[in-house]
Amino acid sequence: MTAPHFVLTLSCPDTVGIVHAVSGVLVTQSCNIVDSAQFGDPGTNRFFMRVTFAAPVGADRATMERGFAATAKRFGMELHVREVAAKTRTLILVSRFGHCLNDLLFRASSGGLAVDVVGVASNHTDFADLVAGHHIPFHHLPVTAATKAEQEARLLALVEEKGIELVVLARYMQVLSNDLCRKLTGRAINIHHSFLPSFKGAKPYHQAYERGVKLIGATAHYVTADLDEGPIIEQEAIRVDHAMAPDDLVAVGRDVECVVLARAVKLHVEHRVLLNGVRTVVFG
Length: 284
Fold this sequence. Notes:
CATH superfamily of the largest domain: Formyl transferase, N-terminal domain
Mean pLDDT: 95
Strand order of the largest sheet: 7-6-5-8-9-10-11
Structural class: alpha/beta
CATH class of the largest domain: Alpha Beta
CATH architecture of the largest domain: 3-Layer(aba) Sandwich
Shape: globular
């Protein structure tokens, strides 16, 4: 048997002795620190820490968390311990643009993302065959203005039934209700083009072409009730020029969206992202 590896994340009011206390607990439990990163934010007076460590053979997550209980209470910590090898149970939502879905499914199946995609849900059936090809359950959840509440109830039931830890909106073109956003706080990631709010509505890349933009970008963020304004996880921008037609911008935009969303999901499932109010702390 090999020594199990865990990752600890915490946030708490910043004060003296936090790193010393965490290290002390690990020593008393015969654990060896593999990697450690920390950040103190003077603006919010919050301290953030991520530690990867090897534990004795036979140790489990529950035992590790219990070992930190007294320290967490002393410093007012929001503390989590997770197994490094554990894959995050994930549900992907998609509408009629499948580039991000296809990219995530490939990365998951090839081992590029530590996710267990236990289902894909959509308000359309366009990608049912693609999902079936990956031997993943496809859930058709059509929605209209009259059935939105019912559809979201079915979606939430699916999340609870399957033990979903992460919901990824891979170009899911439906606005989630405030109630559903609250229930998925910190565990739902969305992707959008970075032209917002300059180019809202239909065909944003065509609007960008008309304005002669020089940068194409994308932003991945946590879902909140404030549309497209949740805490940002990852962003990217690529230069374009006057010789590119609208379809060229669309193609570039698709590629950027795929890369940015995949990076955000990877950071999240490796437990490198900690919420800091409306912002994030991302440990690389």
